[in-house]
Amino acid sequence: MNKVAIVILNWNGARMLRQYLPSVLQYSRDEATVYVADNASTDDSLQVLRVYFPECHIILLEKNWGFAEGYNKALSQIDASYYLLLNSDVEATHHWLTPMVELMDAHPEIAACQPKLLSATHRDRFEYAGASGGYIDRYGYPFCRGRLFETVEADNGQYDYQADVHWATGAALLVRARIYKEVGGLDGRFFAHNEEIDLCWRMRLRGYRVVCVPDSHVYHLGGGTLPKSNPMKTYLNFRNNLTMLYKCLPDAELRRVMRIRWLLDYLAACQMLVLKHSWADFLAVCRGRRDFKRWRKEFEADRQAIQSQRVAAATPDRSPFSLLWQYYVKGRKRFSDLPAEMEK
């Protein structure tokens, strides 16, 4: 059995593999086994792997299962103590694995952790997709140490301390295999987006910790599959975020939060239409809400199971404030400017 299995999910990412896989192999070969799980690519990804990276183990998936179910299918074929889910556009650095693995070895109550995520194009800045560890506000809006909405901070060492977080980025997620299986893995119905937040939330509700380990850092290109302003990404983010809230919120909060989100989501859709002149994004928000309503019953059993297994009434590390209010009304654009209180 492997101790650490680094698993890169690939779909038509031959160029990314050529550019970023060498650093992963260089800085990980003594500590981990590297797998590439291919989601039925139609480019020359497999040829690139076989010719240039013969030391990689290849897992062939029969179709494009998306991020969430693609990882579930791949990880079911790997026997390891730890899985490290790694995007194909991540540049590893010297000594990046050791701090995370040592922390997990010493603390069995930690289910998952992430390194500090920096931008591959602006290397002195955090990267949008996870920065230095993630949280969500009372209405389900994700944010990070180093990134609030579209405001990404420069990395001046201000978050170079280990911290328990609500979620760790799926771009570079080290997770204990036993606990991954215990909570059911990623929700394959999500396809992509919010799936790692949903996973971490379920682990947190069972009493496990999720940690950011900034002694480790990597560089992430970001947007390797879908650019930020993409209607499909907008659709998946809204549909999946609402589904995650439905699954994980306690009964005492669910109805109130969902009512407020109805208002906030349609305000966001109108803002996309009026200010950004994006009819496609407007429709994507509406479709996301419609499809959440259509498939909500499919998640009733999940919700009942999650709520019955929770060990605390409140959601650990979920911020009690509204991020929209703090950011747009109070003008607080940095994580360090936000109120310090978290629900316990």
Textual characterization of the structure:
The chain is α/β, with parallel strands linked by helices and 344 residues long. Helix content is 40%, strand content 19%. The protein is built from 11 helices and 13 strands. The radius of gyration is 19 Å and the shape is globular.
Give the helix/strand layout.
Layout: E1 2-10, H1 14-28, E2 33-38, H2 45-52, E3 57-60, H3 66-75, E4 80-86, E5 90-91, H4 97-106, E6 110-119, E7 134-136, E8 142-144, E9 147-148, E10 151-152, E11 163-164, E12 172-176, H5 177-182, H6 195-205, E13 209-220, H7 231-248, H8 251-274, H9 279-295, H10 300-309, H11 323-329
Parallel strand pairs: 1-2, 1-4, 2-3, 6-13
Antiparallel strand pairs: 4-12, 5-13, 6-12, 7-8, 9-10, 11-13
Helix pairs in contact: 1-2, 6-7, 7-8, 7-9, 8-9
What spatial form do the alpha-carbon principal axes imply? globular
What is the tally of helical segments?
A: 11
Secondary-structure element pattern, one letter each: EHEHEHEEHEEEEEEEHHEHHHHH
Mean pLDDT: 94
Q: Give the structural class.
A: alpha/beta
Give the strand tally.
13
What ranges have pLDDT less than 50 throughout 5 or more consecutive residues? Answer: none
The helix fraction, in percent, is 25-40%
The whole-angstrom Rg is 19 Å
How much of the sequence lies in strands comes to: 15-25%
Distance between the termini: 37 Å
Q: Sketch the major β-sheet.
A: 9 strands, mixed
